[in-house]
Recover the amino acids of this structure.
């Protein structure tokens, strides 16, 4: 018996009414078009400060919230930061961790792996971009009566929702950077999130800067990422 109001306590089933079937040719065309659309997505690190309306972000978050999750517990929270003072504080804290990473913590092998991306500890995008979305996973869901309900497959669920969010933002014409200053505990404190939540990703969202440059890197071809058995 689930305590969570969005899951019915006793099994209740309704007819699947949202599924759409397509003729084979249309399926093939849709699959190709979707791949082509996603293949245009590039992670960027140079953002413009051009504003983006909150309604667009809200729609994309609704898309993220449709992701499958362990027992449908939807163990995520998206903290959307637009306030310049708060973005400034996040940048200060993130750059402290990043300097530690690049100057001390990162082994040479890791730094070598990052070299093609041209990253360093300087993170101006954390202030330039109109939105930072801090994505938290909830180890448990806190009920109104103070009890906690355990969540399952939290990293998997949060990662799938994040993928949906990145795809939705791209589809809407926005660019993203999946930023992971490590450790990210400072986000709980700055954004007032409780201890049952762990920050997974800080998603930087906005339009690319004029003349934005990206690393010349490629995705693996099908035969390197898939096998048919
Ligand atoms: N968090 C650091 C380092 C970094 C690590 C990986 I793995 C990347 O794909 C990119 C960067 C940074 O943001 O610079």
């Amino acid at each position: 018996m689930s305590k969570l109001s969005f899951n019915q306590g006793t099994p209740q089933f309704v007819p699947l009414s949202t599924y759409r079937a397509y003729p084979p040719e249309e399926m093939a065309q849709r699959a190709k078009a979707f791949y082509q659309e996603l293949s245009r997505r590039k992670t960027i690190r140079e953002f413009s400060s051009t504003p983006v309306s909150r309604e667009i972000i809200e729609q994309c978050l609704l898309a993220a919230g449709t992701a499958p999750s362990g027992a449908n517990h939807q163990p995520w929270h998206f903290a959307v930061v637009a306030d310049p003072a708060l973005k400034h504080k996040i940048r200060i804290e993130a750059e402290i961790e990043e300097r530690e990473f690049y100057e001390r913590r990162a082994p040479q092998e890791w730094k070598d792996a990052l070299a093609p991306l041209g990253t360093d500890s300087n993170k101006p995008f954390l202030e330039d971009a109109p939105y930072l979305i801090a994505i938290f996973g909830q180890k448990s869901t806190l009920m109104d009566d103070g009890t906690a309900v355990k969540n399952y497959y939290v990293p998997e669920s949060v990662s799938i929702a994040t993928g949906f969010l990145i795809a939705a933002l791209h589809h809407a014409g926005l660019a993203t950077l999946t930023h992971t200053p490590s450790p990210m505990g400072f986000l709980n404190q700055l954004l007032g999130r409780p201890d049952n939540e762990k920050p997974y990703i800080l998603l930087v969202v906005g339009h690319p800067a004029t003349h934005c440059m990206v690393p010349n890197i490629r995705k693996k071809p099908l035969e390197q990422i898939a096998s048919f058995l």
Summary: The CA atoms of residues 168 and 200 lie 19 Å apart. The chain has a mean pLDDT of 96. Residues 98, 101, 114, 117, 119, 179-181 surround 3-iodo-tyrosine (CB under 6 Å).
